[in-house]
Design brief:
This protein has 15 helices and 12 strands. It is of the alpha+beta class and 403 residues long. The termini are far apart. The protein binds protoporphyrin IX containing FE. The site of protoporphyrin IX containing FE has 28 residues, from helix 7, helix 11 and helix 15.
C-alpha cells in the first residue's frame, strides 16, 4: 500500500482516506509517520488507528498529554506544536484542565442548553418549510451551517449584526493553507473581536451562556477566567462546536440520501432519532484525529514510544474498526451498541456533546416533519483539512415534499 501523507491537508481533499486506514488497521495499527516537506515542525509522529488503542490513549492523560511534554516548548492536540499548550481548555491536563473545565461548565448546564431548543427549532422549521419542489441548493452552505452557527452565536451572546463576519473568518481560516486548524491571521481577527465582547459582558451581564462563564467563580479559590482564557474559549468554540456540527449535519443528509431505507425507517419510527444521532456522529466523525504527547516512555502494540514523541490517534479510523463495529461501513441508524469515539473519550470528552445532540435532533425532526425529499445534484466537494474532515459542498435538488 502506497503511504499517504497524513500531515498534508490535500490528502483529505476527496474525503477521509478510508481504504488506507482499513489497510493500516489490519497491517500496521501503529506506525511512525516520517516527516515530509509539509509536516509541521519537520518532525515525525506516531499514528494510532485501532479502537482499543485510540480509546486507551485518550483515557490516559497521565501518559499522553494534551499539553506539552519532554523537552518541548510547544504541544497541544494538533500535529503542529502550539505555544498555547498548557493555557487552553483543550490543551491542558490535570489541575489546570479541571479548573478551566469547571468554570466553563458552569455556563454549560443542561438547562441552559435546553433553553436554546425553541430558538433553534423555529429556525430549522423555517429553513425546511421554505424549500419548494425543483429548488436546487448547496445543502452545506444554505442549511447545515445555519443551526450550529446560530447555536454557537446564541451561546456566546454574539449580536446578530456581527455573526456574518465571524462566520466568514472561520470559513476562510479553515480553508486557508495553514498548519493550524484555523490560519493565524483569521484567529487573530476572532480573538480581537472577542475582546470587546468580553468587556461588554463584564460590565453588563446578559443571560447567555458566555456571560455566565465570564462571571463564573472557581469554588476552590474564588478565581475567575482571565481575559486571555475567555478569548481562547471564545475562539475554540467556533471550530470545536460550529464546524464539527455543521459537518455532521451535511454528512447525515448525504448518508440519508444515499441510504433511503434508513430514511424510511426513521420516518416510520421517530423514536429511532436517538440512535440515528449516534450513528450520524460515528459515521461522520468530523473531528478525525487528535494529537497527544508522551509524558513517559510507553510500549503500545510492540512499539516503543519515547518521552516527548507526538502521538496522533485517529478517531475516524477507530469508528470504522471492524473488531468493534459490525459491518462498520454500513450506515445503520439502529446500531446497538454504538460506543463511537466521535465525541472523544476521557477527561476531554466533548463539552458540547449535549448541544450537538440537540442540534442534530432538531434538524432531523424538522427535516422529517417537512416531508422534504432530496436528491444529490452534482459533485460533492470536501474540505481539504486533515483535522476537520467533512463535506464543503453538497449540491441537492428538492424532488418532493411528500414521503
Ligand atoms: C457533532 C459535533 C461535535 C463533535 C463531533 C465534537 C467532537 C469533539 C471531540 C472529539 C472532542 C475531544 C477533544 C480532545 O480529546 O482533545 C471535543 C472537545 C470539545 N468540544 Fe466538541 N464536538 C462537537 C460539538 C461541540 C459543540 C456544539 C461544542 C460547544 C458548544 C463543543 C465544544 C467542545 C469543547 C469546548 C471541547 C474541549 C473539551 C475539553 O478539552 O475538556 N463541541 N469535541
Amino acid at each position: 500500500m502506497e503511504p499517504i501523507d497524513l500531515s498534508d491537508d490535500l490528502s483529505f481533499r476527496a474525503g477521509f482516506p478510508h481504504g488506507y486506514f482499513t489497510w493500516l488497521r489490519k497491517n500496521l495499527p501503529i506506525y511512525w509517520h516520517e516527516p515530509t516537506h509539509v509536516t509541521p515542525d519537520k518532525e515525525g509522529f506516531w499514528v494510532v488507528c485501532c479502537y482499543e488503542d485510540v480509546n486507551y490513549v485518550l483515557r490516559n492523560p497521565r501518559i499522553f498529554s494534551s499539553d506539552k511534554a519532554g523537552e518541548r516548548v510547544g504541544g497541544g492536540t494538533g500535529i503542529k506544536d502550539e505555544k498555547t499548550a498548557g493555557k487552553l481548555l483543550n490543551q491542558s491536563d490535570g489541575a489546570q484542565h479541571r479548573r478551566l473545565r469547571a468554570l466553563v461548565q458552569k455556563g454549560f448546564t443542561l438547562k441552559a442548553v435546553q433553553e436554546l431548543e425553541n430558538v433553534l427549532r423555529k429556525k430549522a422549521r423555517t429553513i425546511f418549510c421554505e424549500l419548494k419542489v425543483g429548488d436546487k441548493l448547496d445543502f452545506a452552505a444554505s442549511i447545515s451551517a445555519e443551526i450550529p452557527t446560530q447555536a454557537i452565536c446564541t451561546v456566546l451572546g454574539v449580536p446578530e449584526k456581527d455573526r456574518k463576519d465571524l462566520c466568514e473568518w472561520i470559513d476562510l481560516g479553515i480553508e486557508a493553507a495553514s498548519t493550524s486548524v484555523i490560519a493565524s491571521e483569521y484567529l487573530a481577527k476572532i480573538r480581537h473581536y472577542s475582546k470587546s465582547l468580553i468587556e461588554t459582558k463584564r460590565d453588563r451581564p446578559t443571560l447567555d451562556i458566555f456571560s455566565r462563564i465570564v462571571h463564573a467563580e472557581f469554588e476552590e479559590d474564588g478565581s475567575k477566567l482571565t481575559d486571555y482564557e475567555l478569548g481562547s474559549f471564545f475562539s475554540l468554540l467556533f471550530p470545536a462546536g460550529a464546524e464539527t456540527t455543521t459537518r455532521s449535519i451535511t454528512g447525515a443528509m448525504q448518508a440519508f440520501i444515499e441510504n433511503p431505507r434508513e430514511l424510511e425507517k426513521l420516518r416510520a419510527n421517530k423514536t429511532l432519532v436517538k440512535s440515528a444521532i449516534e450513528e450520524v456522529v460515528r459515521w461522520t466523525t468530523p473531528s478525525v484525529y487528535k494529537r497527544r504527547t508522551a509524558k513517559s516512555e510507553v510500549v503500545l502494540q510492540d512499539c516503543r514510544i519515547a518521552i516527548g514523541d507526538k502521538v496522533t490517534v485517529w478517531e475516524m479510523s477507530a469508528n470504522r474498526d471492524e473488531q468493534v463495529f459490525e459491518d462498520p461501513f454500513l450506515f445503520n441508524i439502529e446500531r446497538e451498541p454504538n460506543k463511537h469515539l466521535g465525541f472523544g473519550a476521557g477527561a476531554h470528552f466533548c463539552l458540547g456533546a449535549s448541544l450537538a445532540r440537540l442540534e442534530l435532533k432538531i434538524v432531523l425532526e424538522e427535516f422529517l416533519a417537512s416531508d422534504v425529499l432530496l436528491s444529490i445534484d452534482g459533485p460533492i466537494e470536501w474540505t481539504p483539512n486533515n483535522r476537520l474532515v467533512g463535506i464543503k459542498r453538497l449540491p441537492v435538488k428538492v424532488v418532493s415534499r411528500t414521503a
